[in-house]
Design a protein that fits this description.
single chain, alpha/beta
């Protein structure tokens, strides 16, 4: 069994929804964070970051003026580091499950996040995460680790993949 389970797939396929369903089915209280779209009138205007510990804030938005940009979004790196990273730091090595949704362009702008991801992958705590399909050397190195099982989510395999991933995570939860 592999300790670290990562999910990849095209935008909008349901990766965050799958992560939430997995957490619910496992019946554990994870630490970590997930992202959600901010939509106004059917249009995506940004992303929220929410921790399992109850903190939340805006990760990126079309109205944020920032030196850090991904596409049309200004990224609030300071908010991300203040909201999500303390929870990751506390959880590494000491929880039943660490959830990181996601290891993507916005999050990887933070060197502190990159460092935490390296520690989290090495820690004894099982990690459930979402990783972008394409990526730099850092992302490729994570995907290529021997202790990482990578699943690709599609519209066709969404339900079956839930059960398959549970078989990888449950032994680690015992």
């Amino acid at each position: 069994m592999t300790k670290n389970v990562l999910i990849t797939g095209r935008p909008g396929v349901g990766k965050t929804t799958l992560v939430k369903r997995l957490v619910e089915r496992l019946g554990v209280r994870p630490r970590g964070f997930y992202t959600e779209e901010i939509r106004v009138g059917g249009e995506r205007e940004g992303f929220m970051v929410r921790t399992f510990g109850g903190r939340e804030g805006t990760l990126a938005h079309v109205d944020i003026r920032s030196a850090y940009r991904v596409g049309k979004y200004g990224v609030d790196l300071k908010a991300f580091e203040e909201i999500a990273l303390p929870e990751l730091e506390e959880a590494v090595g000491g929880m039943e499950l660490l959830v990181v949704d996601e290891i993507g362009k916005m999050e990887l702008l933070s060197e502190r996040f990159r460092s935490l991801m390296a520690r989290a992958l090495e820690s004894p705590t099982p990690l459930l995460g979402v990783v972008k399909e394409a990526g730099d050397g850092f992302v490729q190195a994570i995907k290529g680790r021997r202790d990482v099982k990578l699943f690709t989510l599609t519209l066709q395999n969404r339900d079956a993949l839930l059960e398959e991933i549970l078989t990888y995570l449950r032994p680690e939860m015992a």
